[in-house]
TrEMBL record:
TM annotation in the entry: 12-32, 38-58, 78-101, 113-131, 143-163, 216-237, 258-282, 302-320, 340-363, 494-513, 525-545
Pfam families listed in its UniProt record: Otopetrin
Biased composition range(s): Basic and acidic residues: 442-453
GO CC list: plasma membrane
Biased composition annotated in UniProt, kind: Polar residues: 429-440
InterPro entries membership: Otopetrin (IPR004878)
Name of the featured protein: Otopetrin-3
UniProt keywords, alphabetically: Cell membrane, Hydrogen ion transport, Ion channel, Ion transport, Membrane, Transmembrane, Transmembrane helix, Transport
Entry similarity comment: Belongs to the otopetrin family.
Region of interest (Disordered), ranges: 406-453
Amino acid sequence: QKAGQLFSGLLAMNVVFLGSAFISSMIFNHVAITLADLWILLSILKVLCLCWIIYYLLGTSRQPHAVLYRDSHAGPIWIRGSVLLFGSFSILLNVFQIGYSAILIQCKSRVEIVFPSIEIVFIFTQAFFLWHHSKDCIQVQHNFTRCGLMLTIATNLLLWLLAVTNDTIHMEIESQLREVEQRFEGKAPFSHPCNETASCTCPNTTICKVFQKGYILLYPFNTEYCLVCCSVLYVMWKNVGRRISHHHAPHIKPQFKLQGVVFGPLLGTIAVIIGICVFMMYQIQATGSAPNHQVFVMYYSYYIVLLPLMSVGAVIGTIIHALEKKELDTLKNPTRSLDVILLMGAALGQIAMSYFSIVAIVATDPRDLLNSLILSHSVLLIFQNITQNVFIIDGLHRQPFAAATEARHTGHTGEQVVASELPGEEETTTSSNQEHTQMSPGKEEEMKEEQNHEAYDQRRVNMLELGQEIRKVSLSYIQSYSHLSWKRRVLREISSFLVLCNIILWVMPTFGAHPVFENGLEKSFYGYSTWFAIVNFGLPLGVFYRMHSVGGLLEVYITA
């Protein structure tokens, strides 16, 4: 097993290094390595991954004793739903890219149509594979399956890296806007790095504008899809050859219920509504030729109010986890280990960008209003990421609440009481029947009626006594439960509030609110190229962190 993991890991490492070398060469030397060359390499990798996935679906998984165990923790419904959602948007993104390239076919390479077509097939097949087989603990062809999984992980990582570094259509749009502004101002177009793309302009037609805007709107979902697929595939790789014993399987599967939760969803809904309003106002004003200074103040003020509330909630939840004294879940769980790694790793994107912003502001003019807001936002964002990670990781390592087990035990005891009392009645009635069978026929009917009436009264008394006993047991259970109920309620309120807050903080940067690049402060301090690379590294990780935090917080909510 160790040798197979080592060999497959080395395979993935070499593929990632090869692809990274191609991407770096494309960035720093456009002549030697072009984007078309990189697309050909990625197309070859995707075809190899497709061949392995089809072989797994039709061959490996259908062998006898291939899937004896399934990991109940792997591939929860929201992760698989994210794969389908982001996969659907990624397919639509590639459709828009094909349409955009087909309209500009006179200045576009045919590879720009073939590459998205292959990617559509790859995304659809991979999404189908992960939806149906993400829980598999395959027991045959271990080494071949590990290599196939690692090759697919490496391909998704390279697709993510390409999506982060390649921004061709955005550069084309920017060059067109610069040309329009120069013509409007009566200036001659000057030479800039995007001149080679400026000649390939989108005609003034509705369909071309739709393809262009749709591509820009759906662009972040492709990066999200690649990262989510990598996480699911890694769990499958860890589960190859794994044998799950019976005590690993959960006897009671907790379900998502909104019982007794009021303030968390209410405050979270208010935060979402206000965030949508701020986002819409930001999009309307910041996308103009001269962004208004007040829109940045409004945007950062919203974050400065929301982030401390989220941090305080996470700190309170962590304290309650310490007071609960629930047992820690020490069983081997690859999904939980990956969740912890992804939370810590994805948070580095926002934390790194925040530290770069802090240095830039302190070195320039921290007393300015906007600079003070950006500085406060950066510090609060670092603190919020740390406190939320501690709260989620602590909650993921706690045992689920055992109320269902106690209730089941109480129900069994009640059934045993009923079973122990009712046979006694039957014995007394049968013995009385035997005594009265020797009487005369005329008196037998009267005695049977009296006997039935007495038996009915006796059963009624016994049932009333049984009900009183069950009521006493229930009251004693409620009294013992009340000591923990407030802790559970607070944990669920905090988790639901943080879920909604992370959703709105995921929506805003995903659909185009990027003040870290548009306010101009860090860009003027570090330079366009350096800050563009920092934002392209940190922003996708920050978006992925918010989405992954929602899944972790839902787990904490369910197990509370």
